[in-house]
Amino acid sequence: MITVDNIHKSFGDAKILKGISTVFDQGKTNLIIGQSGSGKTVFLKCLLGLFVPEQGTINYSGTNYSEMDEDQRTELRQSMGMVFQGSALFDSMTVEENVRFPMEMFSKKTPEEMRDRVNTVLARVNLENANDKFPSEISGGMQKRVAIARAIVMNPKYLFCDEPNSGLDPRTAILIDNLIQEITKEFNITTVINTHDMNSVMEIGEKIVFLKDGVKAWEGTNQEIFRTDNEAVTNFVYSSELFKKVRKMYQEEQ
Ligand SMILES: Nc1ncnc2c1ncn2[C@@H]1O[C@H](COP(=O)(O)OP(=O)(O)OP(=O)(O)O)[C@@H](O)[C@H]1O
């Protein structure tokens, strides 16, 4: 569980995050949504410890980041998995080498143990027998699976995903969303996903934090988002005709 209390982050005179508080529960897919420039990436980077807020606190499973010593911070970083936008695989490494990389950096496993673990996580993302392929030899959806396998290889407590669906067709995007949600439940991870994708909101939005101009303008579930009258949310969600129709259907059901 991650508890965020009143965080503020500025760059020079530009105030980007203006007092955000929320809770990201363990075992849930938590989504951060909002328009371009609303501060989603800055928020995610604060959660990753890459940016330090000037004010406010972030607690990881009850421990305040700013009160952790260096060893605790190192341990925390190693308990975080990250799926970057565009997969961010190393092109010159095979799938197996990409997935093994965090273990080589941060674990003391033997080569055999690493190989077993690589095979376990590749099987979990349905990518058996892809070990020797290079990223350029596999599809975008498969690359995302490799990125997810790499993110979970160290058994993370926290999983952060930045636009995990970008560049994927809608069907593959849903498969990737479902995979992230299954893994979140199976390993009881606190997962936080930055997304623009309304399909993701509908499919896996167990908790949604809506940012507008660096402020949390709304939070709730995917069931609630289609019923809310919050104008900022409805303007964002119903910018497309499809979602206007979905809303009408929801309202007629009630
Ligand atoms: N390192 C930085 N230095 C200065 N300004 C920054 C930095 N990182 C982000 N910003 C500014 O913070 C604001 C919010 O950016 P952020 O990347 O968080 O938006 P976003 O909601 O993730 O947008 P998008 O959906 O387009 O990725 C922008 O105005 C951006 O220019």
TrEMBL record:
Span of the signal peptide: none
Matching InterPro entries: AAA+_ATPase, ABC_transporter-like_ATP-bd, ABC_transporter-like_CS, P-loop_NTPase
Entries under PROSITE patterns matching the protein: ABC_TRANSPORTER_1, ABC_TRANSPORTER_2
Molecular function, one GO term: ATP binding
Keyword ATP-binding appears in the UniProt entry: yes
Alphabetical keyword list: ATP-binding, Nucleotide-binding, Transport
Residue intervals of the ABC transporter domain: 2-238
The keyword Nucleotide-binding is annotated on this UniProt entry: yes
Designated name of the protein: ABC transporter ATP-binding protein
Organism, as annotated: Sungkyunkwania multivorans
